[in-house]
Structures are given as C-alpha cells and as structure tokens.
Amino acid sequence: MLHRLQANTCTRSVFSFTLLFMLLVASPARAQDVGLVEKKTFTLAAYTTVGGQAINNVRLGYETYGKLNARGDNAVFIAHFYSGTSHAAGKYKESDVAPGYWNPIIGPGKAIDTDKYFVVSADTFANLNSKDPNVITTGPASVDPATGKPFGLSFPVVAMRDSVRVHKALLDSLGVKKLAAVAGASGGSVQAMEWAALYPDFVARVIHVIGPGFDIHPYVVGLLDVWVTPIRLDPRWNNGDYYGKEEPVDGVAQALKIVTLTARHWGWAEKSFGYKPADEKKDPAAAVANQFQIESVLNSAGMARAKTTDANHMIYMSKANQLYRLSDAEVKGIKAKILFVPASSDVIFPPELSKRALERFRAQGGSADLFVIEGDGGHLDGVFAIAKAGDAIKRFIESD
Fold first, then answer.
1. pTM score, two decimals?
2. Considering 27, 186, 189, 345, which one is annotated as catalytic?
C-alpha cells in the first residue's frame, strides 16, 4: 500500500533523496549489488479473472536476479507494494540515480542472497506507473483489442489474487518448481499471503512486511477510498473517460500526496520539517497562500509522481487491495512458515495486526515468527529501513 519510491532525475523530492541516502548507507559493506538488470515481458493470450471476466493479451513486466538451480527450487518471488514496480534491486543503467527499492537486502551476500537464490519480481495488473517506460502492465489504460481504444472503466475488476495467478504462470514458464520464499511489503505482503493460500505446496516461506495479516482491515478499506477521492473529484477524470484528452493530473497529484502523508508518521514529519515555512520570506501566518515546508514538499512530490501515474490504474489498485480477505479454510490450508515484519510506527498496518495474525496462525498449528522494525518513519519503514530486518530475513529464509 505504498506510493512508488523509485528515484529519478525528474523527481527531486524529499522521498527520492531519502531513498537514495538509505540505499547508500544501509547495505552491508561485504555485500554486492546485482548490477544491471533487464526488464522483460511475460504474455498470456487470455486470462479469466477470479470474478469470471476474460482479459485478452495480458502483458506484465518482470526482472530476475541470480540463477535457477537444476531442481528449480531455489526461487524467491518479490511482490511489489501499492504503487511500486518490479524494480526491486539493481539498476537498469549505470546512470540511474538509485537502484531498486529493496536493494539493501537483495544481492550477492545480502539477506536474499542472489548467489544462492533465483529472485523474480513482476509488475501487477493495473500498475499505477503505466506511463513509466520501465513498467509493463495490463489495465484500464491498455488498448482493448475488441475496440482499439483504451479500456477505461470497462476493464474488469482485478483483485491482488489475479496478479498472483498470472505471476504463477510466469514462474511456471521460467521452470520454477517451488518457491523457497515469497516476500513483499504492504500490498506486496498481501500478494505474498495470497501465494501461500493459493499454492500451499509450492510456497515454503512467506515474508510479510508491513502487512495486514490475512485480510484487509475495514479502516484501510475506507482509507483506500480516501486515497483516490481527489481523482474522482477532478472534473477531467470524466468517469474514467479521459484517454486522448486532458488528464486529471491535479487529482492524481493530490491523491499521491495523501498516500504519502498517511504512509508516514508524525515523528517523521516533526523531525524532517517541524514548522519551517516553504519560503523564509513568506510567513504562513501572513497570507492564506503562504505554505509550511511540509505542504510544499508534499505538493511538489505529488505533482512530480503524477507524471507517470494513471488515474484509473490508481483506482483499480485501491479496489484490488480492498478485496483482500482470506477465508478461514484458506488460512488453515497454508503450509508455509511465515515471518511477520511490521514497523513500530506504522499507522496503516500497525504491529497489532501482525501479532493477531501470528497468534491465529500458531493457534491452528502453523509456524510463524515476528520481527518489528523500530523507527518513526511510519509505514514506509518497510522500504526505507528494510535493512534493519535484513538479518532476521536471512535467518528465516535459511532456516530448516
């Protein structure tokens, strides 16, 4: 449930700076990066959603790190967050400002050791960043083969489970016979748990980072609606019919601003900004238009991110997350060991949700452990501070 955190030269915000800083200082000196990575495309001629709707010509992007062994059982799948992408580690080119979002824990000698594991990460259906040239996704912005025009709101509703099912077909095509682990942060943790429920004999371990447990909390169902409300209120959204016209950029920018703020914590806001004005010469008390620094930064970052974000895709991704809820039978059928990794200051999926899920899973005989990421960065500590959980993740993956 995170906004995309990949830095680039056109997004000079506090978020890209923070990500770059964390990536530079968090990786162990003994470890190496995966180097340059290639984005590839997986295609399916036809797919039927869990809701029974057909989608033709499905295309989702993916990338891999490391090598698959002869038995096909050393694979680790990385599922991305709300508006993340498959770019979990490495760089596409040397000039990239920063590597993938989980670079501190993916690579030779790192927690998810690419000398040992074949790591795969893939874009979801309705990935928010459909305008990013490095993202390959099928969603409302895709062209409907039947009409030759973008689907818009005629695109079928997709759940996170739909992305997992297509990703399973991807792994089958790559020769993967079993997953040593599936890991993900936030919306990626939702996918990780779906993997364990759908394919209990295929998944050995789940690394559930800053996640909700086995279902989305009703509070977050409401929060997801709040996130996309600015899009619906933008007149240019036009009930999803804006392709080839002026797009609802303002609504998307405000939506992304809300996502960012709710994904943080008041400790982060206090430490990073305090009461500084956006312009020392413009006292916020002197005029309504004069802003505090936190307002200015959030607005600027939201507008920069809006350039690669599709409005309808954001609405569809919110719906996909709202639909996450495993049945009692599905939870009982999970055979994988689970490592819950909440963040202490997370106000979207607080640690209490992971603790409840852990107790529920253990009560039915399942194997589960907990590691809490300490800090005041909020939900985003599951990305920016993931290195703090590196040793715990490494021990978990390598445990019997």
1. 0.92
2. 186
